[in-house]
Predict the 3D structure of the following.
Amino acid sequence: MLDKESVVKYLRMSLVLKDPIIETDEAYKFTDDDLWDIIQLVIPNHNPSYTVENYPENEKYFAILLAKKEVYYRLAVASAPFYPLQAEGAELRKDYRFEHYMSLIRRVEVEYTQMWEQFDSNRVLSVENGNVGDLILRSKHFTLRNYNLSSKPIVELNIDTVGSNSVDISWTKFDISMGMFCNYSIYVSENPIYDEYEDTISKEAKKVAEIKDIHRTKFRIKDLNPNTHYYIAVVSEDLNRLRGISEQEIDTTL
């Protein structure tokens, strides 16, 4: 989860420029709320499943880079009206400021691409099927090739506390080295939930939660019946729609 105060402060610090001095640019009138809106705007450009609520801490700098790019673009576009073409020397200065911001945009794009490739390469999986070079490419996570090469993102379900009408569960965090996180889904039923031979979830199973925050790994299932046998399942899913399922059985108390 991104903290507004710290992220906006981080963005402001990264926007400090000496030439032109960004703080004296007439177009630079961004409030903290404006910058926060820009950050929220650019997050889907990095990963469409991310929001400020579930954005991973280790990818924060990518959001900062994309926000910087957006700010520079707005400054570049806004610079021209401040300098009339007929004013002496104005055209040169206008063009200078516009081109300067555009060069900063290109620099940010290069930095983003290089950093993402480096970040991504640390998470690339070598598939142990005897074919050297069979790699899962994170930048192409929606492709059939990646789907075929990927492993199911299974998490381990634990039963923490069982009561008469509720159960507290937890599970291991989605391993980002196995793919790009999409969500966790929680199911409950009085009959088995997952049929591994049909690879289907029972229509009788009730989906009680869908969690898009990768860091949230605890949940309380309520409104259960006392002294009843239940099946509980956690389904972890990546952006390729590959899913892994962990299922447990419980008996509620009297």
Remarks:
- The helical segments are 4-14, 32-46, 60-79, 90-121, 144-149.
